Write the structure tokens for this entry.
Amino acid sequence: MSQNDSQSDSIQNPRVTWEGCSVLLDINDGDRLVFARLSAGSTLKIGNKTYSLQPLIGCPFGSLFQVENGDQGHCLARFVPTVEGNNIQEKGDFESQDEIKDNRALVDNNKAQSLTGEEINAMRSQGATGDEIVEALIANSATFEKKTLFSQEKYRLKKQKKYAPKVLLRRPFARSICEAYFKKYPARIGFLRVDALSLLLSMANVTANSDVLVVDMVGGLLTGAVAERLGGTGYVCSTYLGSTPYSIDIVRIFNLSNEICKRIVRSSLADLSLSQNGTSEQIHQQGDDINMECLSNNQMSSSVGTEEITPTENERSDLISETTVSPVNKTGKSTKAGNKASKQAIDLWKENGFSSLIIAAPELDLWSLLKDLLPLLANSAPFAIYHQYLQPLATCMHNLQLGKMAIGLQISEPWLREYQVLPSRTHPCMQMSAFGGYILSGIKICSSS
Amino acid sequence: MLPIDPTKKISFTRHICDGDLVIVYERHDNMKAVKVCQGSVLQNRFGVFKHSDWIGKPFGSKVFSNKNGFVYLLAPTPELWTLVLSHRTQILYIADISFVIMYLEIVPGCMVLESGTGSGSLTTSLARAVAPTGHVYTFDFHEQRAASAREDFEKTGLSSLVTVGVRDIQGEGFPDEFSGLADSVFLDLPQPWLAIPSAGKMLKPDGVLCSFSPCIEQVQRACDSLRSNFTDIKTFEILLRTYEVREVKMDYSQGDEAKPGSILPCKRPQRAIEGGNEQDKLSSQTVMARPCSEAKGHTGYLTFARLKCLS
């Protein structure tokens, strides 16, 4: 398909979807966000209807789709907006006309709309498009003309969402994945907000050719975000305590190429910390065991994956759900991310040290973890630790200071506010996230001993 | 600065060489970039440091002066560079920078356009994000500023990733040769709305634009001009609150004397942390954190928008 063209054009950054591609579907301007994998059999449910996602394959990311009444019933069809868009047009209009109108004459008695439900259904069965129904609703609204331009626009938008839903095709990136999870399932990503994630990546100097050590107990979001920045070079090594790696299911939502997936490896902390003169046989045996567990864990997680992310019951504004993925497609899916780190790689890290460290492990005791991890870092390597509580970070910072193990120590908390920017109506958004987490950052120095 | 050349990557075996750029760290608020040069010395309030003493030491080492004062020698990173670069203009700091890179969806291999270059603080992070195969084309209308930026990128080893051009982007727009090739565009201009039509031409469909402006009026006008060709127009403000951590002595003895019901917060800030004078069994050391009293209250508004997909 067009997959090859788009991918050869830019391997890291394909701009057209392909079969098996992971996408983010934005339904009605962010009302609902759904992650899906495109295949001939995958579907999307909007309202009480199910639509095939087949028409989305081969389309550029950023394309808009609308429900259309085709020959074989309802389907999603590409919709190309005009350049000017359907945004509110003339600012001049607003200021002049707006001042005359207000809501003194509006009475909320549910009698403004003269079109009945039956009549709407009749229109539908006669093949009226969603837009035609919206126009009819407006024409039959007794109060529409009395509304201000702004509320007219609001009214139109509300009806459009119901009768002519739009689906926007998005590329899943660390940004969109983090935002979508933060909105719907913040606990699964340890309440890590997108600005905090972006700070972690900067503070740990994540870049091509670096070997980044991570402790990812935020579902793989961190691992995926680091891998995205490595672009198929260096390594992101996700380490874990005990014998079972933490789930990195979210990595599958990123559209990471095989080359990038190969750079995501896992290794137990015990393996990384074993002194180099430990007998190689020991290492080997232990390695094999872990490899097995790693694999079975992978299999398990891929079978559980789709359900795990499906919202409980039919919530009205479900934000994340993975649409039904045909099993054929899944097995055809490329390299698995998160293989066990090879012995050569581990030896190299022991010899050279990791270039940086990021921890997002809300459930582990930070200080004891950090004490074990810090020696694995090259000297002068930066680190960044995320936590949703302040105290563990404060303790860590204090201990690092006392032990003279790191410098440039700082605890920071990002604050993010969004603005509504409209002609004569600009102000901060009424709702905001009040908390995005704390980050302790610093630079490891040579031990004085 | 970046491990474009993997042999230069920091590691246990990589030592400071003649000609390396090091960040000399005195305190978290006092750092300096120094090019190591065999016969050279660094002089500061701690005394005289001979560069020859530094050569062969690992990065992250503590080094001493003739008066036994010390500093740390760190490997440069874009974050450290932002703290030491010479300010030729107002610069962007870590919170804005990180958010911009994330929101512009910049990954290795991307082609990014930027104007103005300013002091090159953001440019350095853009280069890190597009490495090893992408490229940043950055423009400033100030010839000397562009030249100084070019020198800086030479110094930090980013020249292969960054090209600095002298051009008035507000007046002339971006060069036509980049039409339809940019993955992302970043604007830090006094009148961004003048450059937005050109930025739209440069972007690939679905590409992301960011405009940084300190004033809301600039944002207002930029958003007005974005509405015709862009979607997903969003404006943010991001700030960082930093915390100070101290070990404080909590005094519990009062609890016995005080009447029930009068539970007061009996925190006594301790002057010396390492003082360790054991006067009271009824007290204990606790590590506590509180926000620093001073912070940046405003840097600028970040407006993001995505080029509509029309084809």
Residues 80-239+298-307 of chain B form a domain with the Rossmann fold fold (CATH 3.40.50.150). The radius of gyration of chain B is 25 Å. Confidence is low (pLDDT under 50) at residues 261-278 of chain B. The longest strand of chain B covers residues 230-251.
